[in-house]
Amino acid sequence: DGEEESEEKVAGNFGVLCKGSRCITKNWVVSHQKEDGSNDFEYKMSNDEKFNRPEDERVVEMEYVGMDRDDSKFIDIIMNDVVDGVGIGFDDIAGLKQAKQLLNEAVVWPLVLPQLFTGIREPWKGVLLFGPPGTGKTLLAKAVAGQNNSKFFNCSTATLVSKYRGESEKIVKCLFYLARHYAPSVVFLDEVDALVGARGAEGEHEASRRFKTELFVQIDGVVLSKGDENAQVTVLAASNNPWDLDEAMRRRLEKRIYVGLPDFTTRCYMFAQFIGEDSADPSVDVTCIETLSGNTEGYSGADIELVVREAKMERTREMLQEINVEDLMNEMEAAAVAGEGDEGGGGGGRGEKKQDNIMIKPQDLFGALQRVKRTVKDCDKYHQWNAKFGSVF
Ligand code: ADP
GO: which molecular function terms (predicted)? Predict the structure, then answer.
């Protein structure tokens, strides 16, 4: 029957397995053939198990299901380089209410509650998040994965293209294989315009053409499996330059969500979040936060984070000036010596205590604001592109 046939088809696929490789299908039979054709050993591995027999440190042959030998050598690269631990939800992201709602309706809920959405709205499998840099596009993609407990494959151009020139299409194949295997999963294509730019079509190298073709084949596979509960793979892409995007790629990213700069209220949240309750002097109050927000029109989330980081740095510098560093080091040394004979004896010196407690002050923040300028100059181009290609909801 059909099942046997598919077993038949994949039999004979072999790949190379190194120590630490993960078994990515239900069953692997690992074996090593001696020159005379007989088997040195045969070993069964189950799903997610790591190949870790100390006596088998050499490279061995393995049998697995559904992947070509040539593509399989990228498994470890992708698993080590690409899969990112996700511990973030929509609540950790300031503002962007509309983008969150759209992603929830479009991607998260249909996957979590497929029975509720059949016939009403099928999940969108290809979504583009576009807007100026540092506005939370990567955060949103991670949160989508976090909301429905998906594996997150964070693919930058560097991982997919530059590092392994000429073999990129094999990495792509392997990537989507792993994404399907670990489904539900989110494949995040960062800087997608650089990955498949519109320019250079004529002078395009054979290798990059192969790469593009493979990427499209894989994305189409994902899009076609819409509604199929067994293949819950979502492709999210991000771009700071959506106008540079290849048209064929743009078409495949059927929903396009604008992620813009934070407004006044969102900037207030950001300042509060980045400063943190425990490290603010009481004089950093609501009025102070609102003034900061009022003075940072046009700043991105990443800019605001930098302002706060600078302010904390400034406070640390001042503290270091207040205390005599040499005294502090002597004090710490003395405490360490005393500590050797006396467990928990009395606690650290004056300087040590101060260092634990950075209490950021309004003047630090306003000082930092003088030094950190907004990085995004103009959003008109984004608005125009949004009007032309953005999704209307
Ligand atoms: P990009 O849009 O370029 O993908 P990121 O999502 O990587 O931007 O955000 C960069 C950093 O800026 C984040 O790590 C975070 O600290 C901060 N940031 C940006 N936007 C937000 C936001 N809306 N809420 C919280 N932090 C944000």
Answer: ATP binding; ATP hydrolysis activity
